[in-house]
Amino acid sequence: xxxxxxxxxxxxxxxxxxxxxxxxxxxxxxxxxxxxxxxxxxxxxxxxxxxxxxxxxxxxxxxxxxxxxxxxxxxxxxxxxxxxxxxxxxxxxxxxxxxxxxxxxxxxxxxxxxxxxxxxxxxxxxxxxxxxxxxxxxxxxxxxxxxxxxxxxxxxxxxxxxxxxxxxxxxxxxxxxxxxxxxxxxxxxxxxxxxxxxxx
Length: 200
What we know:
With about 200 residues, this protein is an alpha+beta fold. Helix content is about 40%, strand content about 10%. It has helices at about 85-100, 110-125, 130-140, 145-160, 180-185, 190-200; strands spanning about 5-10, 15-20, 20-25, 30-35, 50-55.
């Protein structure tokens, strides 16, 4: 084996270690002089440094350098989808939390509040908001309401969707009607909670 301070060439074996009665050779990857950290016969632990290598040509190895730049701002993982009604629901929840007293300290509160209000108003001005909300609800209760009722609701939503860009187009909240014997069940109540605000 190579003595302490001895010179080695790339690929040379500079020492051996014994693991479970097996001998493993340690080789260098560049030319240089070996300086041992562990004495011969020492017991090694995982991650132990055995020796250092003083390179003949330090430019052959990329040196680690301290980072001088700025790290990107951490961003919270998304907690909602990117569809309009999902953004609306998330924004409404944010504003409800603010009204309940859960606020950020200044100077973060006012910009956050202003952004949330602007995002909420943008969602409310979009005529596709009630359509997306009802489509989402109908998909969730599909199979739990009479087929003829589901078909009638989807027909009204399809008609509104095809004319949504028209100035005269109005959301068919009046047409989303269900018989009194079925209208107050927990399955149907979410449909009224969405269509009623539009109707008013």
